[in-house]
Amino acid sequence: STGGDPANTDLGFKAVAVSTANEVVVPEGYSSLAFLAWGTPITGSYPEYQADGTNTGADQEQQMGMHHDGVHFFPIDQKAGGNSSTEGLLVMNHEYINQDAIHASGPTNAGDNGGVRPADEVRKEIAAHGVSVVHIKRDTNGTWDIVFGSPFNRRITGNTEMDIRGPVRSYSKLITQYSPDATETRGTLNNCAMGPTPWGTYLAAEENWHGYFANGDTTQPREQTRHGVGSATRYDWELADSGADQYVRFNVTPTGASATDDYRNEANTYGYMVEIDPFTPESKPQKRTALGRFGHEGVIFAPAKEGEPVVCYSGDDSRFEYIYKFVSSQPYYSATAGGYLLDEGTLYVARFNEDGSGDWLALDLDDADFASKVAAAEGTMVGDIQFDGFENQADVLLNTRLAADIAGATPMDRPEWGAVDPNTGEVYFTLTNNTQRTEDQVNAANPNANNATGHIIRWTEQGNDHSATSFDWDIFVFAGDENTETVVDGQVIVSLTEDNMFSSPDGLWFDYNGRLWIQTDNGYLKETFGNDMMLAANPETREIKRFFVGPQGCEVTGVVSTPDVKTMFVNIQHPDGNWPNAAEDRPRDATVIVTKDDGGVIGA
Ligand code: FEO
Ligand code: CA
Ligand code: CA
Ligand code: CA
């Protein structure tokens, strides 16, 4: 099903140097082009992008959002078993926004405006979040364009109606004025990475959603405190001057007599993986609660096998948080597979043992080991939380982090993306950095105190069975400056050079031939590493080469290719200055299309 040679994961390009230029750098023999920049009209009446920031909230609801992140290319004929590399649905997340760039002259702050924000500014900001589905096609000259008028073109925003599915659906702690039966909510926010499902849908992750909710009470429930919900929000949406319900809901301070009178539980409807069916434009997004509620970075599915459970992995990107795995109760059959498979199953959390083995710990009250740990923890402090038990399994999932604390999972150095090697089945995860880890907090899987540059861990499930409850792990590579070594059994397996030194791995993706692509989010240490970048790795030899450097200020976020691996889509988030259009005066997040000038396989 690929255009390359699966047995050959050699890196056939010349590494590019670090760069601080305000442009994209790719190897000799490759070209790059910015596409689908923030504000590009993609649906509805296709309102033209206004370079002076004067597009309205309604316009933004029909244009590409901001801060492009995880992205996937669905071949247009995928549902029919096809594998098009010239036409498909490009689906991507818009993680957050540049509030200065999105408005004509910056945001109107509530503090300067009588304690309120203009409602249309808020509407525009909410619309710049979420997910875009764009039908794209390559013409005979090799140029990719939007298919205008396609019924698949769609925006999902921070205000789109969604269903709650899985064990947390109908749970009393999700009751709101909007959904008295706790089955629905509005919007998805801070969508970082994603994962395509084996049945052709897209799961968007809700990562730092806590910053969108405010609780003015001095004490907060554990399902807010464990995530850091504060007394003010990042963008003050709850202060929109219209007082409309869709804005007020971001204030989760209890104000009414009961949960049906206010939005005290609104934050409990966030923190999930959200399933979107890009091939069914009228479909309602589904929040899949069985996969847990935390700061989901993304999700990666193991290859689906007929008659076996569906398995997927998800990291919680926060310092000292965990890596999780979901195993479905029902078996996968390609003819009938669908999102229902994600509604029933077991959520596990990873414990990385000191000897290189690992265990998956079930977070399930029906699991005897977990139930006994929960019973033992009752009445004690778990971290900062006075633990008084779980009401039921829905409560366990609502408080996934707390459940994982009790289970005894291994606190990691900020788990970001995962990837599964298509040739070996090994699972890789980036651990981006953790400068707060102290010497007395190191463990074998996170061995560096003050881990400023991160590492990549990988494991093989017992018997190479993704539903197994134990695994063997090792560290694939330590990121860092030149001469940073990765030592295995006393031997230096990798020593980084000027061609591949990197910091803070974040995005991670195996292409369809088995080359591993590593993207960086190096918020600091720019003097050494320059702009953020993408590298390619041969998983077998651990050869690593820098392939791509982004423009100034950016983070290199999502990556995917067409099935033939001849067109690659690389997302650029929060660029500076006037990238990608020097004639404009504000930065625009964009997707960079990378091709090889001879039309060949990228990376080969
Ligand atoms: Fe949104 Fe963890 O990066
Ligand atoms: Ca990320
Ligand atoms: Ca990151
Ligand atoms: Ca980011």
From TrEMBL:
UniProt-listed InterPro entries: PhoX
> Which PANTHER family does UniProt cross-reference here?
DUF839 DOMAIN-CONTAINING PROTEIN, SLR8030 PROTEIN
State the name under which the record lists this protein.
PhoX family phosphatase
